[in-house]
Every structure is written in structure tokens, then in C-alpha cells.
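Hello K.,

You asked for the raw outputs rather than the summary table, so here they are, unedited. I folded two proteins back to back in the same session to keep the settings identical. This is the first:
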Amino acid sequence: MQKKLIKVHPTDNVAVALVNLKAGDVIAFEGQDIKVISDVKAKHKIAMNDFGAGDRIMMYGVLVGKASEAIAKGDVLTTENVKHQSAKVTQKTDTIGWSVPNVDKWKDKTFMGYHREDGQVGTANVWLFFPLVFCENRNIELLKDIFEKELLTQKSNSHRMLLRSLVNEDNGTTAVEPEQTTNVFDNIEVKFITHPGGCGGIRQDSESLARLLAGYVKNPNVAGATVLSLGCQNLQIDIFNKALEAISPNNKKPVLMYEQQQMGTVDEMLTAIIKNSFEAIKEANKIERQPAPLSKLKVGLECGGSDGFSGISANPTLGYTSDMLVALGGTAILAEFPELCGVEQELVNRCVEEDKANKFLSLMQAFEKSVVDAGSGFDMNPSPGNIKDGLITDAMKSAGAAKKGGTSPVVDVLDYGEYVTNPGLNLLCTPGNDVESTTAMVGSGANIVLFTTGLGTPTGNPITPVIKVSSNSELAAKMSDIIDVDTGDVIKGEKTIEEMAETMLQYIVDVASGTIKSKASILNQDDFIPWKRGVSL
């Protein structure tokens, strides 16, 4: 029988509606009868006791808001009667231990990956084209059109065929021949990045972009790169080369550099790029998948289009999966600093070293100050979609989002653009914006990204498989073309978090081995947005 309410933590004074509740319903819950005061939609929160104005709202065992007016027991929490409030933190006060999950059955498991000379292992083998400045975006787009048409298997786009049939019908013809091309290479993908950066802003933004792009070259999923420069921009070739040298001192990957202002006509430049890149891609195609231990997995943890179930099913599933990977010697990356608001003390206490805890607090405080200086605040983080589905304060959203990081110790804290070097759970300073955060985690070394959603979002990445995880089965059925794994059975009480995590880890192994393609990869959802921290000049 479907439960109607769930309380996430024993100390919580609110519960989450698992189904729609009607005013007047009486629900037997934890030894008491809860009379529902007003209609409550599934995913929203209901008061477990009477609140007076200013009383603390607790969920996930942490402070997630305060009552802005009296709230009766059994009434629904809304943006009108609850305001954002989170616990303050100033320093590391304790060290939190963790219960290491039993991973005996996974210790000898392997995935089939692409081994790199620096010891990393890729889950994909990509030749990457990107510009140092937006002025070269058009040339990148030209190269994308050329290479994709000649090298990649092209399944006829059904919507393009629909338009063609409509055009033909309007012209009095009906024949529509589907386009078919062959796949020239077996072991290499060719991907393309464009972006709006590299010039026109402060120098720090260009240097930050250089570090990000260098991280993409170092990422184990990349075999090599073709890089286009205009010549006069802020992000000079030598700045990029220094960033690559800093992040990968003994880089052995081929990186082909072209500067338009030194090469003459576009035709001359494109001709050289195509000839040289084709030869390099042929060499990269010789790399084949080989067995690798699961300790070589670096998993980015992301959520977007979150709903009131995300922090109960999908995010805790990722958290337990993260703990399993860490226990196996692997790496997990938890980002989205605005969505860690209110759980800082727990994360600080999980840091294995005090200097890591201090760095985390410093980055959080600087980030929040920059937001306040811009006339906003972390409390403005929940989107209209989040609020509509029950995440009515930033702290409430954050407490659920942080569950993606499990319970393992925090081994390192990284600023944006820094590369992961320590196995275990790493915290990475990024915005909460889905694509900016995913972009950053891949630039820091993630060779798989797990992305939870309750409302549905089509985000992917050019070089790293993004696995979409739904918090509820209704979404998985409605948007089956973008969802890979459904954790709705947790909400229905049919599976435990631990059981879902076992399913999740096996899916990761299959995607990492290339035996399954993530839906985002199938749909070519190649999103890339750098974080622009400065102003335009």
C-alpha cells in the first residue's frame, strides 16, 4: 500500500506528501493522527506540529526555513508562510565518521575504458575541436558540418524528414529518401565546442576559461584536440599553453593549434586544419578499450529541474552510489555551491583536513558575497519550477541536493577550474546552473556525470556521458527519451536506496564500457557553458 507521508530525518518537524492529500483527510502517521487542513499536492511539505511566527522549520535534520506566520499542524508549507533561513557556520567543530558500505561484490569488477599515458582511463575516446575566442565559433561550426557529414553515422532526423515531406507535398512531389552515411572510424568520436568567451571581459575570465579548456584536454575521455585562435584576443595561445602545462605538466596528447591572423585566408586555414586533424584522428582511432578497475571512475554529481522527491529518492541514490565508488577507490565530485547553503557545517566536519574546511568556507563566503553585491542572494536560488514542486526555500533545496554527496569524508576542496587529484569525495566551487556546473565538473576530470531531475531537463556534455536519473516514475514514463534510470520505486516503497544504488552502479559500468549509450549521448546533447565570474569591458 502506498504510504502517504514520509519524514526524512527523525528530528524533522515537517513531512513530505507522497501523494495528493485533500483537506479533511486524517492520516495515521508515527503514532498520531494528522488532520490535513488544506489541500496538499504530492512533493509538498506538511506541518507536523503547530508553528508560531519565527519558529524554525527542520528537514533532513537541518534548518531549512522559519515560519513567517502561524502555521497549524496539518497545514501545507508555502512561500507565503515560510521564509528561507539556514544555519550559520564559522569553523570546523567536529569530525564526522562514515559507515563504509559493503562493496565486496564490486571489488574485482572492471569497466572497458580508454587508458591514457598519465594513468587516467576514459569512458569515451573523443577528438575535440574548440576555439580560444568566440570570434572562431563560425569556423568551428564549419568544421563541425564538414567532419560530421563525412565521418559520423547519420540517422535521418525524423523532424527534418517531416519538413522535407511537407515541402515536397507543397511542390507536388511525395518521395522522401532518407539520408544514410557510413561510420568511418570505430573507436573515436569527433566533438565540437563553441563559447562566448576569450575576449571582451576582464583578464581573469580569460585565464579561468584557459584552465577550463585545459581541463577538457586533460580529461581522460579526450584523445587529442584541435584548437583555433584568432590572434588578438585576451586568451592568447601562450596563456592556454601555460594553463595546460600547469594542469598536465607531461601532456602527451596531441594538441593542434591554429591562429587565423597568422595563416591568411579562411580557406588556407581550414584546408590545413582538415588535413592535419584527419591524420591525428586516424591515430587516435587506434586506441581500443581495455579493462580498468572501478577506482578509475571519476563521477560528477549534478541535479537540475529538481522536485520535492529529488532529495528523497534520486539524490540519496546518487549519495549511496558515491559512497560505494569512494569505498572502491574511485572519485566523486559534488559541486553547485549555492545548493550547499545550510549544510555547510556537516560538510566542514566531513573534511579530512582543517585547511580543506577553511578553503570550503572561504569559497562559499566569497561566492555568497558576490551574489549579495550583485543585489541578490542564495535565497533566490529556487526556480519557479522548484517552488511549484515543493522546494520553497534555498536551504530546503540545498539539504536535498547535498544528499548526492553521500556520507564519505571530503578529501579535497577545489575552486572552479582546478583539477581533481585525490580519490574520494571532492567539493568543487561552481554555480548551481545545470550546464555551468556540469561543464565545470567535466573540466575538473569527471569521466561520467550522474544528473538527477524531478521535472526533466535535457542537459548533456560534449565529451562525458551524462546519465539522467528521475526522482519519480511519472517523469520517467513521460520523458522516456531523456531518462536513463528511474528511482521512483523508492517513492513507491518497492526498493531501498541501497538497492537502487546497486542498479545505478551497474548502469554506470555499462555506460563507461560503451555497452550502453546514455540518452543524452544518443540525442547529442552537447552543452558547454563556462562560468563568467567577471564583468564585460
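The second followed immediately with the same parameters:
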Amino acid sequence: MKTKRIDISASRFAGGHGGTAVCPLFRRSVSTLAMGSFLFAGAASANEMLDLLDALPGGKTDRGPALAEVVHAEADMSAIEKKSVAGRNPGTLQDLSVWDDERFQKAFLASYGANAEIEPRVSAVEREQLQKVMDIMSEEDDLQKAMKQLRKVTKESSSALFDFTIGNLYFQQDELTEALGWYDRAIAKFPTFRRAYKNAGLIHVRNGDFGKALPFLTKVVELGGHTSIAYGLLGFAYGSTENHLCAESAYRQAILLDPETVDWQLGLARSFFKQQKFGDAAGLCETLIQRQPDNAEFWLLQANAYLGLKQPMKAAENYEYVNAMGQATSASMVMLADIYINEARWDMAADAYLRAYELDRANNPATPLRAAKILASRGSLDQSKRMLNRVAEKKSALDPAELKELLKLQARVAVAEGGGAEAVKMLEEVVEVDPLDGEALILLAQHYGRNVPEKAIFYYERAANIESHEAEAKLYHGQLLVGQAKYGDALPLLRRAYELKPRPDIEDYVEQVERIAKTRG
């Protein structure tokens, strides 16, 4: 089954947000409309824009927005380091795009027509006046002349259709503020004028004024505009105003009427994520994957749902599949690596981190440096060295901060492996450049703690004077004194470390030292 996608981009509807150029398609299409009785017979429901949009087949599948930008998982993934993913603000219209769609433009032109049941009638004289305007638009292709002619004959007592048509002319020229004013006038004259509500709602959606759009869009539905476009835009507006329960309901209606348009299903998925209905989101993604198994974005979206369900290894399967498809991103591989870190699968984590680095074309050393630090802290020294050696291949291209981080990490691994002079030399270089580098001071202290405790204490005391490293320095200093059986001297340091950063393991350690100190008292 072929999937269609409705494109509702605000930027290309009539020459861009700021321009006033008239879309060429509008000019071409006006001349194709049959004037006279077709336009103003008062029974042209087929001209209703929303109805036409849903009736026309076809669509786009290749210009949609990135799925991760349309639907944002907000799962509780505390066990996994969250990433900052650049994305578009959901309060913009970049997530949808109907404005440059040929069906929309033809249907918009059809909104010059009328539906007698919910729209004002026109007198014979008014019909003639409107016919002249349409002739100018069709034969002379001159919107400005048509506008001038129409405004000349429009009076306070004129049919609301006159005000509506002026609004349409402004809308075509991308003069949205003026268009809204005329649609408001039309609605004031004829409060059940559905097309006026619809076009005003579309402008508010296009402008990103979703709170203002909602009353107009709901009025369209109230007046019988039960179409997928109406419900879909209503869902988008509700979602953009953080009313995700109503957004879910609206998107469900849109999908019921048009199960082929992916935008509505993505909107529904987004509402699921916002409500933390991760099971529903995963199930919906499964349906999308079955329809488009080669769409990596659906696999990644489902991975986010699995993370929300606390099923990280199922998420990992999705990330691995996307990588096998050749569509992985640096961000997706880092997420995969973080999952493997939490599962203590060090080799697989290192492979994923290196893949992320390659996808960045080795231009972002922050990722492997971070990975090396995590792996070293977990005791996976060999894998940490793999990451560091890879970064060191481009050592000359590193900025000073990155070079310092690389040196510290290499020294940390060397110290952990019992390394000697080379590690100490690197650390002392770092401290010489930055005397307030608490991490380097602590690493030096740990190195000297094996053989020269007095020097180790000197470095621990220096590190303790740095606020961000005081707790760690006092903890290690206290442990060093415990190793020397100086329990009384160690206790104040350990208690201070616990006071700064309370942790159950430190609390237990302090209690044990206190008991020993009393026994040895």
C-alpha cells in the first residue's frame, strides 16, 4: 500500500513569509475555473477546500521532515545519558507542509466558490459584480486590478462573500494580516461562514499562532467540516499548545478518515510520547515500520519508545538495524554505545563509540574523549586506550582544551595500569599549564600514594582547595590515611566528603572507620 504525505510548508506558499509574490500556480489555476454559475450557484460543496483536499489522491513521501524533529521522546531514561538533539521548535509550521502542495493551491482557489447551506447567498447584482472580478483574474491575470474592482463595489451591506473574497485575494498575495481582517468581517456578517473560519484558522496555523487557530479550527468541525485536514491541523494545534490528550483525539479522527497520510500518524505518535504512552508509541511505530521498513526514522522513533519502556536492549536492536542499513547517525550510535555501557558490554560500546566518531568524520573528538573517560572509570582500560589512540591520530588538530583532556585521560589510564614516569610527566605538564586542574592533581596524588604518601597528601590538599573537587580529594585523602591506620585523622576528611556528596557507600565506609577508630581508641 502506497503511503501519501501531505506537505504543509509555510515558507513556499506564495513566495515566502516576507514576500508578496503570487504563486504562479494560483495564476494559472484561476483561468481554469469555470466562472458564473459554477462559482456562485450556491451549491458548490465540491469547491470546499477541506473536502477537496481529502478527495484528491496522491501525495508526497520524500519531502517530509525528519521524524525525530516531528516527534520527540521525553522518556524517563535516567540510566542513559541524554543527548541534546538539535531540532525544530514544534511551535513552528516546518513540521507540516500544505502550502506548496498543488492540491492545496487548487483547492484554495476553489474556496472562491460557495455552499448555500453554511455560506451567504448573493443577489443577482452582486453575482454580476463578482463575475467581473473573476473575469479580471482569469483573463487579465491581474490580482491588484481585481482587488481594486472588488473593493470599489464592497459596502457594509454587501454579502459576506465579498469580504471573504477580498480576504482570499490578500491571502494569495501573502498579506496575511489584511486577509485575517477581511475574514473576520465576513464572519461578523455571517457567523456560520465555514470557509471563512477555515481560512482564518489556516493563517493562524501558518503563523504559528496555535492558540488563536484553535477556535477557528474547532468551529470548522462544528459546522460540518469533518475532514482529515481539519482534524489533522486541529491535532497539530492542540499538540503545539501542549494539550496532548485533545491532540491524540484529533489525530485519531484524522487517521480514521485518511489512514494513508503519515503526518497524522507522526502527530499521534508525538502525542503518545508527550503522555508517556510508550507502549502505544512502540505499537504505532511497528505499523509504520511494516509499511516502510527502509525508513530509518521509524526504527529510531521506536527505539526511543523502547527506552521509555525500560527495554534498552530492544532499543539497541533497532539502533543496530539502522546501522546495518547504513543510515546510522553519530547521535544514534552514541545512544547505542551508552546502552552497552550500562549493560557492561565494553567491547561493543567501544565499537559503537568509534563508529559515531567515524560518522562525524573524526571532526568531533569530544565524543571519543567522553567515551574513553567513561570506559576508564568502569575499569575497561583496553577499550579506553583504543578510543584515546584513535583521537591521538589527529593530536595536532586538537584545540588546547581537547589536548589537555587527551593528556589527562592518557595519564589516568597509565596510572590505573601502574604506569610510571611518562604518566607523571604528562600530568605535571597539565598542572603546570593549569594549576587549578583538580582532576590532574588527584591523579598525581593517586600515583604518588603508592610510594610517596607525603607528596600524595600535598596534591590532595591542593585539589581540596578547588570547590568542584573538594569532596573527591578529601575522600581519597581519607582513604590514604586509613591505609596508614591513621583512623582519627581520616574521619574528619571522610565526614566532610560525605557532607558534600552524600552517598550510601561513603556513609557505610565512614561508619566502618568510626567503629575501627573506637576499637583502636
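Residues 1-95 have pLDDT under 50 and may be disordered.

Happy to rerun anything if the numbers look odd on your end.

Regards,
P.
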